[in-house]
Amino acid sequence: MNKRTIFGSIVILVFFLLVIWYYLTQDKPMLIRSDTILNLKREMLALNRMEAKEMGILTKSTVEIQEININSTKITIQGEVKYSGKTDLFNLVGDLKKQDDHIVVGELKDEKNNFIVLYNSFVLGKLDELPVYDFEKKYNSNTNLMCLYLLKKDSNDLTIMEWYNHNVEIDFEQNYLPASQEDTQMMWMLKLPMDL
Question: Which UniProt keywords are given for this protein, alphabetically ordered (predicted)?
């Protein structure tokens, strides 16, 4: 081989290594499997997952979290919900509050005005005591959980996302978070529009 061929091969190899390095160092969206109940009505809240699936009102969906920023007591979550060939964007902003030693809740609004945020929480351990939707019950006392329940404004489609062992850093020991005034785990249903 001559020097030009060797030099050209090295340049191509370095180029590919730089491309691979760049790709690996970029923040990638987090894809979380979720369920969406289509055209939610109040009486559907009593259904379990299997009944909703048999009635044809439950569809698989994906929540793509593109960015989560936490700054002291403020939180921003950007992403999208995908199901039934549709994609709906969200930009959730609001305040973090401490419910107890194991639960931090987000009181959020969607700046894109596509969703009503019914519930958002970050839970550390003690999941067996919570009324979570619970896809597969694959957790133990050290498992952490992020819940996000989004109601689509124009269709009343309810997307339920529960992300086990997420990588969002929440400091449950800090006392600077204001206390939540309500038991949001049970109160999210009260945020549903009256005309459902």
Answer: Membrane, Transmembrane, Transmembrane helix
Backbone dihedral angles phi then psi of residue 105, each to the nearest 5 degrees = -110, 150
The two three-digit tokens of residue 190, written as one number: 């009260």
Question: What is the structure's pLDDT at 49?
Answer: 77
If you write DSSP's letter for every residue of 141-187 in order, what string do you get?
TT-EEEEEEEEETTT-PEEEEEEET------TT-S-SPBPSS-HHHH
pTM reported for the whole predicted model: 0.77
Task: Residue 149: name the closest of 112, 97, 184, 98 by CA.
Answer: 184
Residue 117 phi/psi, 5-degree rounding, is: -85, 105
Q: How many CB atoms lie within 10 A of CB 21?
A: 10
Query: Which alpha helices (H) appear in 48-115, and where do they start and end?
Result: 49-54
Angle (nearest 5°) at CA 13 between 7 and 14: 90
Reading the block at residue 196, the tokens are: 């459902």
Q: What is the pLDDT of residues 130-181, one digit of tens each?
A: 555 554 555 555 667 888 999 999 998 999 998 876 677 776 666 677 777 7
Greatest Cα pair distance, the chain, in angstroms, is 78
- Report which secondary-structure segment, H or E, holds 154: none
Q: What is the DSSP letter of 153?
A: T
Domain ranges of the chain: 29-191
- Confidence band, pLDDT 50/70/90 cuts, at residue 11: low
Cα angle, residue 134 at apex, residues 131 and 137 outer, rounded to 5°: 115
